[in-house]
Amino acid sequence: MNKVILSCAIWLLTSAFASAQSPTIADLKPDTIKVTTGYSMKFHSAILNEDRTIMVSVPEGYATSNKKYPVVYILDAQWNFNHASQNLAWLSSPDNKVIPQSIVVGISSGGDEREHNLTPTIGSGNGGGADSLYMFIKKEVIPFVEQNYRTYNYRILGGASYGGLFVMNAFVKDPLYFNGYIAMSPSMWWDNQIALKNTEKLLSKSTQLPTRLFITLANEGESMGVDSLASLLKKYSTKQLVWRYDKHPDEIHNTINYKGIWDGVKFIFSNWSYPLVDFASAEKPFIVPSKDKTVTNPKIAKVPTVNLINYSGLYQDSYGRLISIEKLQNSLVISCDSLPSFTVYPESKNKFFLKTETALNDMYLKNALIKFEFFPKDSLTMYANGITYFGAKKVISSPLISLSEQSKKEYVGNYIASIPGNNFKISIVNNSLMISTGMATSKMYAIATNKFFIKISGLNLEVTFTKDDSGKITKVYISKDGEMLMTANKSN
User: Fold this and answer.
1) Residue 409 is part of a domain; what is its CATH number?
2) Are residues 365 and 413 in the same domain?
3) How far apart are the first and last CA of the chain?
C-alpha cells in the first residue's frame, strides 16, 4: 500500500511540474505568424453608388512568376471565399495539378440586401437587384482585376442558393461572357420560376453556346426547380454546351457550396490546356495587344540545316508543358499536347515566326505575330507582338525519332512494377503512345527505338525496354537522371 501511495505522489508531482512547464498562448507569440487565404478591399462602385467589399486570392508563386492565370469569381464571399481559395489551391498544388492555378475573386453580398442583390426580379417585394450587381461585376470588378493582375481571358462564375440563381440569370443574359458557370442549388423557384422560363427561351433559340455549366442540388427536392432546369438542358442543349448535373441527397442547402465548388471547378477545368497566347475561340477571337494597327509576316529566310537540327528536340516551358520541335525542310514543326501542331518559318538563323493567317485560322488570335527565338544552351523564348509569353529549355539532348505504327503496337499492354502500387498501362491514343498509372497519364516521347522520355507526376523519367530472344518486349527499366528507380515486367 505504501508503494502505491508513493507512486501516486510521484505521479502527481511530475504531472504538476509538467503542467507548470506548458507554454501559454502569449509565450507562443501567435502574432508572429499570419494565416490567410487572401485579402479584402473596399471597392467604390459608381454603378451601385456604394462601397462594396471584394476579396482576392492569388496562387502560390504568383509574385515570383510572369505567368497568367484564369479567374474564378465567387458570390457570397463572406461565406465562400476562404474555403474556395483553399480548395482551389489544394487542387492546383504541384503534387495534384487537378486544375490550373487560378486567381479567386470573391464578391460579398450578405446582410439585409442579399436577397435584393442576387435575385433578377422583384418577386415577393425585395428582389430585383441582380442585373445591377452583374453590371458592377462585369463593368467594374472584372476590368479592375484584369488591369491589376496577370489574368487569362478565361473566367468562371460561381454561386449557391440565391447566388446560384444569380449565376443562371447571368448565363441566360450573357452566356458567352464567362467560360464556365457553377450554380449550386440555385433558387429556380424564385418568382414563379421566372429563371426557368428565361432559360428555356435561351436554349430553344440558341443553337451555339460554347461554354460550360455545372449545376448541383442538395436534399431540397423538386421544389427548388433544379430538376426542371436539368430537364431543359437535356431537351435543348447542343454539343457545344458542356454541362453536368450532380445531385447530393446527403448534403443540405447550407453545405452544398463546399461540395459544389470542389466538384464544379474540376468539371469546368476538365480537359484544361494552357493557350499559346490567350484563350480564344471561333466565337470569341482574342485580339493580341500591339502598338501597330496591323502586323505583317517577315520574309522567310534560308537557314543552315545544322541550325534546324540543333533546335529540334523536346522542351519544357515555364508552365510545365512538354513541347516537341521537329525539322521539316526549311521550317520547324512545333507540337504540344495542349495545342494544335503548327509550323514556324525562319526569319533569321535563330528567329522563327508563325504566320499571322495561321494564328487567326487555327488559334483564333487576331493581329498576332508570334515568334520563337532560340538561344545557346538549348533554350527559347516565345513572343507575341514583342511581348514575352513564356520561355522553355531542352529537357533531353537526344533528338526525337518517329516510330512506325507496328512498332508502337509492340509496347501496348499492362506492366507489373517491382515496387508495389506502381503498375502501369501503355496504350495508343490519337497515334501517340501513352503511359497511365492510377494517378496520371503521360505521352511517351521516343528518343531511340527502345527508349522513351516521359513526364509523369511531376518527374522527368527515362523508360528503356528490353526484348527476349523471340523479339517480344519483356522488361522495362525506369530511371531518373541516370539513377534506376524501378523495373517492370510486361504481363500481356
Assistant:
1) 2.40.128.10
2) no
3) 72
Domain that holds residue 181: 39-268
CB 380 within 8 A of CB 315: yes
Q: Residue 89: enclosing H or E segment and its boundaries?
A: helix 77-91
**Nearest 10 degrees: Cα torsion 335, 339, 345, 350:** -70
3-class SS at 279?
A: coil
SS3 412: coil
Calpha distance 262→270 (Å, rounded): 13
Q: In the numeric block, which cell numbers belong to residue 249?
A: 441527397
Mean pLDDT of the chain: 90
Assess whether 92 and 148 both reside in one domain: yes
Using an 8 Å Cβ cutoff, are 467 and 478 in contact? no
The number of domains in the chain is 3
Q: Which residues contact 158 (CB under 8 A, 6 or more apart)?
A: 72, 73, 74, 75, 80, 84, 167, 181, 182, 183, 184, 260, 261, 264, 265
Evaluate whether residue 399 is within a structural domain. no
Verify that 164 and 310 share a domain, yes or no: no
Q: Could you tell me which of 303, 363, 359 has the C-alpha nearest to residue 331?
A: 303
Q: How does strand 432-436 pair with strand 483-490?
A: unpaired
Does 311 lie in the same domain as 204? no
pTM assigned to the model: 0.85
Q: Does residue 419 share a domain with residue 374?
A: no
Query: How far is the CA of 325 from the CAs of 47, 335, 392, in angstroms?
Result: 50, 6, 12
**Radius of gyration in angstroms for the set of CA atoms belonging to the chain, rounded to a whole number:** 28
Do strands 483-490 and 413-417 pair parallel, antiparallel, or not at all (unpaired)?
A: antiparallel
- What is the average per-residue pLDDT within 479-485? 92
Asked if residue 349 and residue 464 are part of one domain, the reply reads no
Packing angle, helices 190-205 and 226-236, rounded to 10: 10
Could you report the per-residue pLDDT of 179-237, keeping only the tens digit for each?
999 999 999 999 999 999 999 999 999 888 999 999 999 999 999 999 999 999 999 98
**Could you give phi then psi for residue 467, rounded to 5 degrees?**
-120, 155
Cβ-contact 160, 257 below 8 angstroms: yes
Q: Are residues 294 and 180 in the same domain?
A: no
Same domain, yes or no, for 340 and 372?
Answer: yes
